[in-house]
């Protein structure tokens, strides 16, 4: 590997670490606790298929773990958590349908 390639790789790793640290600051401990319960419940229902908050909101399993969060608050939580791993799972914004965000739960690679 050339010195330039090594330097770029080191820089990319540093940027990645800084971005992860910045992402982690977006979530409170309560947010992480809710997501740690919520993401496996939704993943169990949908796998990695896209879904809308309104489709999941009243599912009995999701209702049990989301507590008193409104649909709007849940959507905002998901937006803050997008791309951030929580207990080996990650929530991703994958599209828009009828003006609403499509979400998907996936496993963290590596």
Question: Overview of this structure, please?
Answer:
- By secondary structure, the protein is of the alpha+beta class.
- It has one domain.
- It is built from five helices and three strands; from the N terminus they run H-H-H-H-H-E-E-E.
- Strands 1-2-3 form a three-stranded antiparallel sheet.
- Strand 2 (89-97) and strand 3 form a beta hairpin.
- Helix 2 (29-46) packs antiparallel against helix 4.
- The longest helix is centred in the first third of the chain and has 23 residues, at 3-25.
- The protein is elongated.
- The mean pLDDT is 87.
- Which strand order do you get reading across the main beta sheet? 1-2-3
Name the helix and strand elements from N-terminus to C-terminus, one letter apiece.
HHHHHEEE
Main sheet summary? 3 strands, antiparallel
Question: Helicity range of the residues?
Answer: 55-70%
Structural class: alpha+beta
Radius of gyration: 16 Å
| Anisotropy-based shape | elongated
Q: What is the rounded distance between the termini?
A: 23 Å
Number of domains: 1
Number of strands: 3
Q: Tell me the β content.
A: 15-25%
Low-confidence stretches: none
Helical run tally: 5
Mean pLDDT: 87
Label this structure with key terms.
110 residues, alpha+beta, 3-stranded antiparallel beta sheet
In short:
The chain has 110 residues and is α+β, with helices and mostly antiparallel strands.
Q: Layout of SSEs?
A:
Elements: H1 3-25, H2 29-46, H3 53-56, H4 60-66, H5 71-81, E1 85-86, E2 89-97, E3 100-107
Antiparallel strand pairs: 1-2, 2-3
